[in-house]
Amino acid sequence: MELELHTIQTIISQQFPQYAHLEIRKVDKSGHDNRTFHLGYDFSLRFPSAIEYS
Q1: What are residue 47's DSSP bridge partners?
Q2: Average pLDDT for residues 11-24, to the nearest whole number?
Q3: pTM beyond 0.90
Q4: Could you tell me which residues come within 8 angstroms of residue 33 by beta carbon, excluding any fewer than 6 positions away?
Q5: Of 5, 14, 26, 47, which residue is the least packed, with the fewest Cβ within 10 Å?
Q6: pLDDT in tens, 34-53
């Protein structure tokens, strides 16, 4: 299951509109169970890497 930045941006815009202006950057080494992204400089976002991990 690969996440697109556009999908993450949509989730943030809908659920946390106050953070929608922040840049989203993928963390290269995220682990096996999840994918990690930076949201701005203060937040990290973690998403399951597969349906089995959700």
Answers
A1: 35
A2: 97
A3: no
A4: 48, 49, 53
A5: 14
A6: 889 999 999 999 988 777 76
Q: What is the pLDDT of residue 51?
A: 72
- Tracing tokens 């946390």 back to the chain, one arrives at 16
From residue 1, alpha-carbon distances to 6, 22, 40 in Å are 15, 24, 24
Give the range of the structural domain holding residue 26, as residue numbers without chain letter. Answer: 5-53
Structure tokens at 34: 């999840």
Tell me which DSSP letter residue 11 carries. H
Number of residues written out for the chain: 54
Q: How many domains does the chain have?
A: 1
Contact assessment for residue 8 and residue 24, using Cβ atoms and an 8 Å cutoff: yes
